[in-house]
Specification:
single chain, 362 residues, alpha/beta, 2 domains, 3-stranded antiparallel β-sheet, 11 strands, 17% strand, globular, binds flavin mononucleotide, Related to FMN-dependent 2-nitropropane dioxygenase, NMO
Length: 362
């Protein structure tokens, strides 16, 4: 099945080097610069429109103009070699569809996440497929086995992103790490006759070792969010990037919580979601019983400190996953894709040697 999935991905995203490495559509952080660098390096970069639909059209125009003379664009003139991600609960579908419709070049993939009701994804999937003549493939991010089964039956997406609990940013408050989630999803989907849909692992993957593991667990590719925060291309402050590089031991340094949404006044996420971020003074003060109003006031004060407001002694929100401890430096996004691909290949090749000379499987 793995090679069948690879063939599907190769057909739909011909510029991509196998295994597929995607950069997550991090809301307002993943702009054309990041998405394009990832795709130019042989991955698939996603724009993080999130809930801000006003960015969609200008970013598509910007990406089209940057990619005009690119060999990966010329391979398919109707399709932009990047994807676009929506946080569905916060976007008006007809507005999104009208932008898809008027775009001269359609994004290669639309990444759908966090609808108010999972049934809404049917209208999203059908609407985008019709409006783009199927040129834009449908990726849906899910976080449980039940959700994966429900979505494949109702939407038949082109790709399912399996998001585990280690993931940075928003995700289901209750899910498991991809070490068990990916194989259980792969088995359940195969049993129900949906084994032909490629799976992409997300959550805690930071390097070639993580990619190799995800492939072994049943994925055909990997998505990274947190790792791409530590890039020149990510649109976040230097303080945020420094906090990501400095954090260690992510199981302790980060937690899933709603505190950061509360103090920043982010409302609208369905109740089953929270977000993983690096622990800081806002988190600990909340833990000690500080009122939301006071915590919010201190957060507003902290903004004035600029880059110094980040880090464990600061109060600025640093959404990031448990893998932060593996990030050592800020590095160009294209370099990360190339390095991770090379490392994954070497790791997988090395594991073959483990069984040499043993009678396992004989
Ligand atoms: C800062 C940040 C912002 C994110 N924003 C979004 C988003 O807007 N839409 C979305 O579908 N996923 C978002 N995610 C989650 C990613 O899609 C993905 O599941 C996650 O980054 C994978 O785990 P990792 O961070 O350990 O690589 C975000 C992740 C991070 C770290």
């Amino acid at each position: 099945m793995a090679s069948k999935h690879t063939q599907i991905l190769k057909k739909d995203y011909p510029w991509v080097t196998s295994p597929l490495i995607a950069s997550a559509p991090m809301r307002l952080i993943a702009t054309p610069t990041l998405a394009i660098e990832v795709s130019l390096a042989g991955g698939l970069g996603f724009l993080g429109v999130g809930t801000d639909i006003t960015k969609f059209s200008p970013w598509l125009n910007e990406a089209s103009s940057i990619l005009q003379s690119s060999p990966i664009l010329n391979a398919s003139e109707d399709v932009l070699p990047i994807g676009v991600g929506f946080i569905c609960w916060g976007v008006d579908l007809p507005t999104a569809l009208s932008i898809f419709s008027s775009a001269p070049q359609k994004p290669a993939a639309a990444w759908l996440f966090a609808p108010k009701d999972s049934k809404d994804l049917v209208s999203w999937t059908e609407g985008i497929r019709q409006t783009t003549d199927g040129n834009t493939k449908i990726w849906i991010q899910v976080g449980t086995v039940a959700m994966a089964l429900d979505i494949v039956k109702s939407c038949k997406p082109d790709v399912l992103v399996i998001q585990g609990a280690d993931a940075g940013g928003h995700g289901l408050a209750q899910s498991s790490s991809i070490i068990s989630l990916l194989p259980e999803c792969a088995d359940a989907l195969a049993t129900e006759g949906f084994g032909n849909i490629p799976l992409i692992g997300a959550g805690g993957i930071m390097d070639g070792r993580g990619v190799a593991a995800a492939l072994t667990l049943g994925a055909s590719g990997a998505c990274m969010g947190t790792r791409f925060l530590a890039t020149p291309e990510a649109v976040i402050s230097q303080g945020y990037k420094n906090a990501v590089v400095e954090a260690r031991d992510g199981g302790v340094a980060t937690a899933r919580t709603t505190v950061y949404d509360k103090i920043r006044g982010t409302i609208g996420w369905p109740e089953s979601y929270n977000a993983r971020g690096v622990l800081n003074q806002s988190f600990w003060d909340n833990d000690k019983g500080m009122s939301d109003e006071e915590n919010e006031r201190l957060y507003e004060e902290e903004i004035k400190k600029g880059d110094a407001g980040w880090g464990d002694q600061g109060r600025m929100t640093t959404y990031a996953g448990t893998g932060v401890g593996l990030i050592q430096k800020i590095q160009p996004a294209g370099g990360i894709v190339r390095e991770v691909l090379k490392d994954a290949k070497e790791r997988l090749a090395a594991t073959r040697g483990l069984f040499k000379g043993s009678n396992v499987g004989s």
